[in-house]
Amino acid sequence: MSKRVYQLILDLPEMIEKAIHLTQSALKGKQGLWQRFQPQNLIISGMGGSGIGGEILKDLANKYSPVPVIPSHDYTIPNLTGKRSLFLAVSYSGNTEETISAYRQAKERKALICVITSGGELKKMAEAEDDLLILIPPGLPPRQALGFLLTPLLVLSSQKKLLPFTISVIRKSAIKLKGWLTECSKIAQSLAKSFYQKIPYILAGSSLYTACAYRWKCQLNENSKTLAFFNTLPEENHNEIEGIGRPKFMRNFLSIVVLFDPTAEERIKLRIRLLPTLLRGQFFSFQEVAPLGANDLERILSLLLIGDLTSYYLGRKYKKDIEKIERIEQLKALLGELTSGKKEL
């Protein structure tokens, strides 16, 4: 099954292109209100692999959007959700209990709703309520369906003029990404070697890359079956930096990677240059990963691709079945049995 995951990672550019078409097709049937509606905020409900797209959009929105974008990863929704909110329910399976709960609350608050899913209960609910429904292909591991889950958020944000990335720019970014596959693979293979039998510590080189660093951490957890940690500069320099090197057994087991943002404040770049000297002897390796691309969207997509490939190559080194997430599935099954009364604690 590892080969399937590898191909899905490489298919990211094609997923983006297909998702653009799916989103545009869904919007054609929703003129009128959807065209006129200008939200005061965007609330994006999603869990796990279905939730990372909202975090990526938030990072971009913090830099560009005139209205706030608020990811929500819970059974409840932010209190500010209301009639002027655009609520996006994102669940690959369509059966995520937290997202279903959030959807129902958004309905009660009379928010304008879009559902992004491959089926399940959310699909049925969206069809019954005549919500904007963007149906994406089923049968994929949610964490490897990023192109289908993120792109609709980008397209809808573009339509509402919340981001400077038009449909054409998104499409061109996917084309460029396809041309970078070989280069991204080489970078990822090198990173996997430095992460092997070490603890990856991913630092976002600015708040724009916080979700990228989090995605790297999650993919390393799920695909490589290894512990990994992340933080964001400059915030990391005000707390976590003091913990590096302790407990003592962790010394020389920390592999630090900075996701370098060429547009970051000069003071952040200076902090990055100072870190190797300041932390000398406390880590196994320290390296920077420079993204590819000419704009923020291209650079973020390149980092996402590099991170996914790194998790694949490291998982292979550990000889793991990259697609399986046994503990997560076991927990879901146990929760289901406890809820149905078939099992007691």
Helix % is: 40-55%
Distance between the termini: 34 Å
**By helix and strand content, what is the structural category?**
alpha/beta
CATH topology of the largest domain: Rossmann fold
Shape: globular
Total DSSP E strands? 9
CATH homolog superfamily of the largest domain: Glucose-6-phosphate isomerase like protein, domain 1
Strand content: 5-15%
Annotated CATH architecture of the largest domain: 3-Layer(aba) Sandwich
The main β sheet shows up as: 5 strands, parallel
Taking all Cα atoms into account, the compactness measure Rg is: 20 Å
Number of helical segments with 4 or more residues:
13
What is the CATH top level name of the largest domain?
Alpha Beta
Average pLDDT number? 94
| Total number of domains | 2
Q: Strand order of the main beta sheet, please? A: 2-1-3-4-5
Are there runs of 5+ residues with pLDDT below 50, and where?
none
H/E element order? HHHEHEEHEHEHHHEHEEHEHH
Write up this protein.
With 345 residues, the protein is α/β, with parallel strands linked by helices. The chain folds into two domains: 2-174, 3-Layer(aba) Sandwich (Rossmann fold); 181-317, Rossmann fold, CATH 3.40.50. Helices cover 50% and strands 14% of the residues. The protein has 13 helices and nine strands. It has helices at 2-10, 12-28, 33-36, 52-64, 97-108, 120-129, 146-159, 167-179, 181-195, 210-223, 266-278, 296-317, 326-340, and strands spanning 41-45, 69-72, 85-91, 112-117, 132-135, 199-204, 229-232, 254-259, 285-289. The strands form two sheets. A five-stranded parallel beta sheet has the order 2-1-3-4-5, sandwiched between helices. The protein has a four-stranded parallel beta sheet with strand order 7-6-8-9, with helices on one face. Helix 5 (97-108) links the parallel strand 3 and strand 4 (112-117). Helix 4 runs parallel beside helix 7. The longest helix has 22 residues, at 296-317. The model has no long low-confidence stretch (mean pLDDT 94). This is Bifunctional phosphoglucose/phosphomannose isomerase. Residues 23-173 form the SIS domain. Keywords: Isomerase. Belongs to the PGI/PMI family. One of its GO terms (biological process) is carbohydrate derivative metabolic process.
